[in-house]
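**Reference record**
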Amino acid sequence: MPVGQLVALRNKKNGVTVLTPDRSDPRNYLEFQAAGDPGGGDVQYVSEESAASPACVKAILHDVLELETDTMSPAVAQAFQQQMRVAKQQREQAEAQVALTIERTENTDIVGQDCVGPGDRPGKSCGASVPVREAALKDAAPLCPRHSALTAEYVPTVDYNGDKQTTRWIRSRMTEREREQV
């Protein structure tokens, strides 16, 4: 029986990989040591037929194993590279189709904010927890039911801490002097 061309398969993962090229004979398997194994156990020479088995092709497609094409005959290497290109195109098309079917929902998470209304002591805010939709954090001042009537008196100010942007709510009031002028 003539011996076919041998090709090198290399394990790219940091763990042991075991493949069974022939599902009908599970006692016949390929074992690859972790990538960069000092004893060279991460590389196995297999026949071109074994390298073309579904288990090996799947491992190559999922980037578990790498086929060193310089060890293959030119005709088989060219056919194998063509198969890999087609498989990659099919995978990219499938991913694009899946991306089109994904429904993007709006952010409806609810977060707790401290009430910015006046507190019992002068200069302190109320601090009661107010549930606010995360998407609406910058739309209105977080005010508890006790202070909700003061909504029109609060204006947002934007603070920058490096590249992080935060919104603070400040109560704008007219002083006695301003009221006399109106």
About this structure: The chain is about 25% helix and 25% strand. The chain has a mean pLDDT of 79. Residues 74-101 form the longest helix (28 residues).
